[in-house]
Amino acid sequence: MLRRTIPLFAIISLLSAICPAPAPAMSTQAEIAAGQAEDQQIVASSVIETDPLLNAYVAGIAGNLWNQVARKDVPYSVKIIKDSQINSFATLGGFVYINEGLIDFVQSDDELASVIGHETGHIERRHVITTNSKAEILNILFGIASIFSPIVYELGGLAEAGIMAKVSREDEIQADRYGLQLMSRAGYDPESMVTMMAHLGVLEEEHDDAVSKYLEDHPNPAARVAHLMGYPELDPTTVTAQQVLVQASSDEERARYDFARLRLDQVLKKDPQNPEALLELGQSELALGLPNKSEQTMAEAAQLGSPATRAAANQQITALRKMEVQQVRLTKADPPGNLQSTVTAAQANHYANATEIAARAAEGKDQIKAVRNRIDTLQYEVPDLSRVNAKRGSRVEAIVKNLTSMARSLNSALQDTGSDTSPIEGVGTLEKDKETGSLKDSADIYKEMLAPFALTPVPTESVALFPSYPQMLGELSRADAEMLRSVDAARASLTILDQSLGDLDEFLKELDHAQLGFSGDITPTEYAVLKPMMQKCVDDFNSAATAASQGEQLYNFARSRQLSTRITLLGLGTSPQLYSTLQYALQQRFGSSGVDYRTMLRDGLTPGEVTAATIIAADIKSTPESVITEAKSSGQTVIDVANAHKMHAWPLEIFMGLVYLDYTDDPLKELRQADGTLAVDLGKLGL
């Protein structure tokens, strides 16, 4: 009979099987082979992100780091795992894995580089295997035996039970140290490793579940920051003003305007008349939407600098003045008299929609609880197959593979319906004093759009945005509709899951009666009974995963539309100079500057639409102009084109968020803890 229970010794033997011998005793060839074997099991038991643009983005950052590694005999690779938890891990042989939740969490390319650099450090230093990878691999491989790996992990408390030996503190410090060196050599800001730790520390203070797994398997962020601050790359006393200027210029080149301004302000505190710092600061202020301040700063640089600095500053001032003339031409008309009432009506409609969306999401949360309770009950019926020697091509092997397939689909459906970034959990509510989630994000955008009407006179910069209001209102309205549909799709997935668990219950009961013969396989007669039941379970779980994925797709399109309006509200389309900073950021990230300023105005586009078109074009290997033409000819929005081409919506939302952060990334706000203090003393960073 196949046993229903999973004894402790079986777990330990499974762990032993995935933990190879100490690295110093292994050849590089054996290490790579061990990593490849683990990779096959991880890929078979997980949902791996396949979006080409997102994979190219992560691989590009990783590649920049790996160009600097000492171990040239290791074929490094990185994969993105569909998991909302903020986590990453590495295995032997150069394999690095990044959870989707971590990519969504980082605030910049540099912070992601710090994570990949740390994991690379473990491989470079030949640490046997990171604690995090032990937990992740055990969690994933345990699914082969139990198919409910997330539930087993949560209820079993494997990490807390002491089954896995912790990687030594020295190993973690070495990995941080090596990662810091890689970042610096590859041109990334080493201070981003500190800010990444600080962000994690803030979540730890807030007891955020999204980071719980990472904190179980990595040392306390505050302790790691304390060690990091002792390294020369982060010692402000060894950095000259000229080096800070170079760092600020590098930040501007990568569109990290707020970080550049922080550094330049620090230089100017010590040397208020530094013309190079003033020139750089003026450029950052322009990108941050402060043209008047930028012109004042440029004027100071022109008075104090060398002939070359004066020429550059005067050229910028001339361009700014031309911008002002262009801006007046664009905004000379008064705002339409009914525009304010139109926005107010749209805002009221959003609040009405939010009530319905939140109510359905609440019902979905009840469904999630019911499904998880049912899984909790069912897991004790799952047979232990960990000690069964499933021969290649056997009927038992087919059962194991199908159970793995069910586990993968189940976990995918649970991720897309029950995680913090899923529609049901993510839409939030507009209930008074409890406003949260994407519904609150839209409400905040409406408030921002209405704010200028309360001012007398209405600021010129605001008037320049009014022509874009109709498109923004349209995107917000579509976002509401997609949020509602996404919640409904997630709930449909949970209904299918509930029904599928009933079918699984019947299959497991039948499987429990199966006998293993002397050949180690079940009889053809028994398999004939099990096969249709098993196939129905596989099909049911696949259907649930598909419905959940559709809900997640709709939800991330809604979030992308919100970000489109936020990018437009930055005012980047109100002048050629401001728009040029967006074009530069797009060129840096996606290899295309979008469409030119005159085309944007002529075609009535918004900066948000241009940003989306540029990202979509990079993903589907087209051009922004073609994407825009397709949208107009089909009567759709630019973001609708992404859906028509079956682009994954989550990467679109991620990349639009990164572009938005290029302009709004506020280091001080990000690092401020709940009690108002800073998680990191920026003075120690030289900021």
Summarize the structure in words.
- This protein has a 3-stranded mixed beta sheet, sandwiched between helices.
- It is globular.
- Mean pLDDT is 80; it is low at 1-24, 129-166, 327-334 and 672-676.
- It is mainly alpha-helical and 687 residues long.
- The longest helix has 46 residues, at 524-569.
- 68% of the residues lie in helices and 2% in strands.
How many beta-strand elements? 3
User: Numbering strands along the chain, what is their spatial order in the largest sheet?
Assistant: 1-3-2
Please give the count of helices: 30
What proportion of the residues is helical, as a percent range?
A: 55-70%
Q: How many angstroms does the end-to-end distance come to? A: 66 Å
Alpha-beta classification: mainly alpha
Q: Kindly estimate the percentage of residues that lie in beta strands according to DSSP.
A: under 5%
Oligomeric composition of the shown chains: single chain
Q: Could you report the average pLDDT, rounded to the nearest whole number?
A: 80
How does the major sheet shape up? 3 strands, mixed
Low-confidence stretches at least 5 residues in length (pLDDT < 50)? 1-24, 129-166, 327-334, 672-676
Globally, the shape reads globular
Radius of gyration: 27 Å
